[in-house]
From TrEMBL:
This is RCC1-like domain-containing protein. The lineage of its organism: Eukaryota, Metazoa, Chordata, Craniata, Vertebrata. Residues 20-297 form the RCC1-like domain. Keywords: Guanine-nucleotide releasing factor, Repeat. GO terms for cellular component: cytoplasm. It comes from the Eukaryota. PANTHER family: REGULATOR OF CHROMOSOME CONDENSATION. RCC repeats lie at residues 18-68, 69-120, 121-173, 174-241, 242-295. It holds the Pfam family WD40_RLD. SUPFAM superfamilies: RCC1/BLIP-II (SSF50985). GO terms for molecular function: guanyl-nucleotide exchange factor activity.
Length: 358
């Protein structure tokens, strides 16, 4: 278990409280609006007992972190992704409290798993990971968990982020730890030969968090990271020197690589070198990536997939093989970032930085 840490911090920890609005499909309660709401075409207020600092949309569930460090969940709980009892009729369709005594500073959500980072650097998870053949388990092969369980890590964690079925953890020491499905290379530490359920070593190779090995140049030793981001089946990491590494699925150039083969180990993404060293964030779905730097002209970005019936259609964007600045789009003045579910959504970025995409 990670040694006690008085308080962890990272720029990704959100502290500004606000209200939660939801829209889209609600057939399994993922909108948090109650049993009778199957769809909302316009944003609707989710009734929560506290103000919220972070909201994350998983595949079919939603996770909200309150300003006091409590977690509220709603949506599909078939594999325990809500982390709470939903035996009462309809209880999964409205926000419910996850019983966790520790104060939480960050949450993440995948297709059927949820993770929470506490203020002393520990990570709790619940639900399950899946691969192309179905459930693979959470901490142990084929075993899911409907309540939070502690991950055993050797160093305090400062950031967590989830893909569809993998979890990435950035430690205080600058290491990356990953666990979950590795079929597309998204763990960055499992060779392609063993990516299908861990090969001879079995699922333990995938489910037990292990460090992603990246060597520095020359005799500098291992690489240290300052940030990490996930798409559905791929991962980005930013070194302390500002270099971008990526691994995982790239069949539509999601990683910004020249080829479309998956990357099973971290690749130094040289396509980012000609832009800036100061990357503020990456956000990706199944087949695309949007990233924000700190050196461009202020502009908006409303891009990529938008589900029919949920507002105006957005212009199609041609396939981009390398990071490129996206043209600005007309938009309201005071929108905040949205958390998308699955692969069909629109991304909204604050009007203070320049968005790129690949």
């Amino acid at each position: 278990m990670a040694p006690f840490c008085p308080a962890v911090s990272h720029p990704s920890h959100r502290t500004q409280p606000g209200l939660v609005l939801s829209l889209g499909q609600g057939d399994v309660g993922q909108l948090g609006l109650g049993e009778g709401v199957m769809e909302r075409k316009k944003p609707a207020l989710v009734q929560l007992p506290e103000l919220i600092v972070q909201a994350e949309a998983g595949g079919m569930h939603t996770v909200c972190l309150s300003e006091t460090g409590k977690i509220y969940t709603f949506g599909c709980n078939d594999e325990g992704a809500l982390g709470r009892d939903t035996s009462a009729e309809g209880s999964e369709t409205t926000p419910g409290l996850v019983e966790l005594q520790e104060k939480v500073v960050q949450v993440s959500a995948g297709d059927s798993h949820t993770a929470a980072l506490t203020d002393d650097g520990r990570v709790f998870v619940w639900g399950s990971f899946r691969d192309n053949n179905g459930v693979i388990g959470l901490l142990e092969p084929m075993k899911t968990s409907s309540v939070p369980v502690l991950l055993q890590l050797s160093s305090p964690v400062v950031k967590i982020v989830s893909g569809n079925d993998h979890l990435v953890m950035l430690t205080m020491d600058g290491d990356l730890f990953t666990c979950g499905c590795g079929e597309q290379g998204q763990l960055g530490r499992v060779p392609e030969l063993f990516a299908n359920r861990g090969g001879r070593k079995g699922l333990q190779r995938l489910l037990v968090p292990q460090r992603v090995p990246v060597r520095g140049r020359g005799n500098k030793g291992k690489m240290r990271f300052q940030d990490a981001f996930c798409g559905a089946y791929f991962t980005f990491a930013v070194t302390q020197e500002g270099h971008i590494y990526g691994f995982g699925l790239s069949n539509y150039h999601q990683l910004g690589t020249q080829g479309t083969e998956p990357c099973f180990s971290p690749q130094n993404l040289t396509s980012f070198k000609n832009s800036t060293k100061s990357w503020l964030g990456f956000s990706g779905g199944q087949h695309h990536t949007v990233c924000v730097d700190s050196e461009g002209e202020p502009q908006w970005c409303l891009v990529l997939h938008c589900t029919e019936g949920l507002g105006s259609r957005l212009p199609e964007v041609p396939l981009l093989r390398y990071p490129q600045v996206l043209p600005p789009s007309p938009s309201p003045e005071h929108l905040l970032p949205l958390c998308p579910g699955l692969s069909r959504y629109r991304s909204v970025l604050p009007p203070t930085k320049a968005p790129w995409a690949c």
